[in-house]
Amino acid sequence: MKKLAFITLLTLFITIHSTAVFGQKIEIKGLRLGMTKTEIEKKFGALPLNNFTIANVSGKFPVRLAFHEGKLDELMFFFSSNSFNDVRQAVISKYPELKCTNSTVTSPTGAKYKQVNCKLEDQLGTLRLDRFVRDIDTSALILISHRLFQELENKRKEKQKDNLNK
Question: Is the pTM higher than 0.85?
């Protein structure tokens, strides 16, 4: 009987803990999925967001905010890969449950680089932090809603299906 009670308590603890982690809302400098343009402008001023930084790292391009039905659906922040570790440390300090994986990527010239891909999900979407995107000089932090991710995934599958039928 004690063993059953222990297993029940352990299961309850794991469920509560995972719900608490999943139940939080990911926020990047006060921006979170589902915010309206009005809420963002009240907090940051008129869009587009100029001089947006993460961990004192400036973007290579203006931060991209995409909206669906008037609510923030995606945030894209591209920055120099030389600053990847600074941004990663800032995100990990706020979200220690961020999971990162390492791999090796090879350039067309044969040079090898250490790729790092990090991911964290909440009930609204996914935060991704990738060392190399597009090229070895560009890193990205992307916060994307589950809705938009699924839409893009469906489009990708349709395109793949169309290409196979040609």
Answer: no
